[in-house]
Every structure is written in C-alpha cells, then in structure tokens.
Amino acid sequence: MDVNRGLSGNSNGFDRAWPDDATRIPDWIYTDQDVYKREIEKIFLGRHWNYVGLECEVPEPGSYMRSYVGPFPVVVTRDMDGALHVFENRCAHRGVEFCREYRGKADSFICPYHNWTYDLKGDLTAIPFRRGVKGKGGAPKDFEMSEYGLRRFRVSTRGGVIFATACEDLESIEDYLGPEICAEFDATFDGTEFTLLGVHRNILPSNWKLYQENLKDPYHATLLHTYLTTFGLFVSSNESNIPTDKYGRHGGLLSRRPEGRPDVSEEEKSNMQAFKQTMELNDPRVLKFFPEADSKWSGSVLTIFPTLTALRQTNILNTRLLVPRGPNEFMMLWTVFGRSDDDEEMTRHRLRQNNIFGPAGFLGIEDNEALKFLQDGIRKAMPREGLAVLGEDDEATDTLITERAIRGMYRYYRDVMGF
Ligand SMILES: [Fe+2]
Predict the structure, then answer these.
(1) Residue 6, by phi and psi: left (phi above 0), alpha (psi -120 to 50) or beta?
(2) In the CATH hierarchy, which top-level class contains the domain 50-156?
(3) Is residue 237 over pLDDT 90?
(4) Least CB-packed of 47, 90, 324, 375 within 10 Å?
C-alpha cells in the first residue's frame, strides 16, 4: 500500500478534490471546519426541508417546543388559530436563547435578560421602557417593533411530521421525498393521531453524516447487532428492500421479519459473528409484533436528508433528529410516539420495545460506539479515503450486502456542496 495516498496536496496536508467516484469518501468531509460552514449554507439553510418535530409534540393552541434547524436552535409553536410556526430561539435584542423549557404551553415568550416579549408567531410585542423614564432614554423614536421580530422559517407538514426551511420556493414535501420514499413515509405517518411517549437525548462524538450513513448501511446491521440478527429483526436472509429517491439523498431500509427465530443458513452464520444461536430473552414479550401499518415491512428505517430518520421497527415508532454541533459532534433527539387509540397495554408494549433504542439501547449503543470509533479513526489517523464499494449501483434493490445507498447520498452531497 502507498502510505502517502491522500497525504499529498495543499498545506493542510490533504487534497480537497473529491476522488472520482462515490466509492471513495474523503476523510475531510467529516472533520473539516470549512466543510461544516459550507454545509450550513448549502444544506441546512439551502434547498432542503429540515425535520423539526411532530405535531403531537405541539398538540394544542399555545403549545411550543424547542428544536433545531441544522445546528440552529428554534422554537416550534402552535398559535391560537392552530397554525404552526418555526422561528429562531435567539432574542432579536442581544441574542439570548430565550426559550429554556423543552416544551410546554405559553401565550408569549419573554426573554429573561431584558424582557423583550414575542408572541406565538415570533413577532416582537413589547420592550420594557420603550419610551425611557421621564422622557429620557428608551428606544429610538423611530423604533418599529414590527422590524425586530424573530427570524422565521417556512413550515410544512405531512402526516403529522413538521418540516421547516429557510428556502422561499421549495417544492412540496411530497415532491421533496419522491414517490419511492413517500409511499413508505405515508405507511407510518398515515394520518392517525399520535401521542408523544417520551424523548431520548444524547450527544455523539461523531459527524452527523455518519449517522445517516449508518442507517443507509444494511451491511453493518447484519454484522454489528446481536439483538437484530439473533432475534430475526434484521438478518441477511429476510425479505428486504433498499429504495432511494431519484437523487439518492433519501433512503429506506425495509425488512420483513419471519415468524419466530430466523432461519439462518450455515453460510450466513459463519459471516455473522453477532448472531448468537443460544442467546435467549428473559422477557420474549419485547419481540411481539402487532402489524399496524399498511406495509409489508415489519421494519422500516427512512433516512430523509438532511437530518431526519424515521423508524418503525416491529411496534417501535420513533423519529431521530440529528443536530450538528460542529464537524466532530452531533446531538440526537429521539422522539418516541404511539397512536392515540393505543390502549394501556399497547403503550406498555411500545415502551418495553423501545429498550432497543436510545442512548443505551440493546442496539442503539452499538451504533453509538461504532460511530465514536469511526470518528476517532478519521480525525486522528493519517488522512485517507473511506470505501463504499459493496454492491452494484444498478442492481436490484433487494440485497442487504450493499453500500449503494451510501454512495447515492454522497453523489447528491457532492453536487450540492460543489466538491
Ligand atoms: Fe446499526
């Protein structure tokens, strides 16, 4: 091997030109501050719908919650007429991140520092001592409150999922998702009313894109995850499909679980160290599956570019919002939900199953660890390129041993970023 590969180039010690094809992914897209700044402009504030939350998180007039558009803190509100708004969580006066509670009900937001006050639409409605005291001090005579509202994002929803964008003329959510992904999106977000069951929140020392990759990577799922493979939720012999939209930016990882323990061949077993034939569950209820969606798939993970992943795995329903915090770190907000007509037992079942996921879930913890090690490798080691060479780009979409969806995302990413 040529140890100098990837080391020649400019004074930063690496070459910024992306290698010729998407099977080679340069380390610097995960670690470089300038790349990250460009992502903010081209991706998070660019021509994309950013997931910000679920309608069931702001169920009533006056409900609000904190969320993010890319790295930027925002507040999502439902005003007294029921309309949704997304605006920055940064006081127009001095910049305070004024909304401190994660969620709640309010009829206005008062910045704690100087008490500038905003309504549920993000308009500035009051500033203390506007006219000063005894005719002295105060805001300038020509100060117009209407000019100092909070910066707002355009909002759209589909099936109870809320998206926001800084772009004024973006396509509809339906067109943004594309027909292949929209069909599966609609199977989960089918118009039934949802209930918020809880939230996991954790920070990973890894680049945000690695998490999208992780969920476009069926290859790893059959290798890293003992729980998924051993109990048949996701094994290479399952019927499966890996659809992508026409740009390659969104993807699905769809799988149908067999009844009972999986029928795993000797060949598969010899390849899957994670598969533990003799492992049993103390509480097998955790695996029970009550079909609930109009879809043949028992497991569906959608990666919606840039920062949403939506999951339906047996009876777990959750979304994950990836919140970048610089190139080397991101926060994950997992929103776990059920259906409003679930009875007490179904709610318990969903919560029990949710032990798979979250910061320390049976399965979530393995990805969290793997991505930390991955970021460590690309951040500390001599720069090189990662490989995404498995599978063919024009093959049928029903094999799991492929990195086709990862390549798709990076072709799109490279175009948008202009690399
Ligand atoms: Fe994983």
Answers:
(1) left
(2) mainly beta
(3) no
(4) 47
Q: How far is the CA of 223 from the centre of ligand 1 (A)?
A: 9
Q: How many angstroms separate the alpha carbon of residue 216 from the centre of ligand 1?
A: 9
pLDDT, residue 260, reads: 64
- Domain spanning 174-417: which superfamily? Naphthalene 1,2-dioxygenase Alpha Subunit; Chain A, domain 1 (3.90.380.10)
Secondary structure class of 399 (helix, strand, coil): coil
Compute the distance between CA of residue 381 and CA of residue 86 in angstroms, rounded to an integer.
40
Confidence of residue 7 (pLDDT cuts 50, 70, 90): very low
363 CA to middle of ligand 1, Å?
A: 7
Q: Output the pLDDT for position 92.
A: 97
Distance between CA atoms of residues 308 and 105, nearest Å: 25
Give me ligand 1 centre to Cα 61, in Å: 38
User: How many angstroms is it from 292 CA to the middle of ligand 1?
Assistant: 24
CA of 235 to the centre of ligand 1 (A): 12
Residue 102: pLDDT band by 50, 70, 90 thresholds? Answer: very high
Q: Quick one: three-class SS letters along 44-68?
A: HCCCCCEEEEEHHHCCCCCEEEEEE
* Distance from residue 228's CA to the centre of ligand 1 (Å): 9
CA separation for the pair 299, 341 (Å, rounded): 21
Q: Where are the domains of the chain?
A: 50-156, 174-417
pLDDT at residue 37 tops 90: yes
